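# step 3/5: fold
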Amino acid sequence: MHGDFQQIFADHPQVFGWLRRFNGQTLVVINNFTPEPVTLDVPEAMQGKQGTCLITNSSPRVRLPASLELQPFESFALLLERS
């Protein structure tokens, strides 16, 4: 495997999320695996980051706010802009 992997929201029972970094790029993937809406507190270092939504099953996201509201079974992958 190239690059690195960092799990985020590891203690959250409804959400699986991770960062994947490779060759100067960062991909954020967040998945709500439940039929209930979920509100997440985004880690401070990720708040306000913007990028390109590569895939989603809901409305495309282009920015990570301080508080992220996920719809039931919502998943998305956001390729962050290089800083």
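# step 4/5: annotate
The chain has a mean pLDDT of 95.
# step 5/5: archive (pending)
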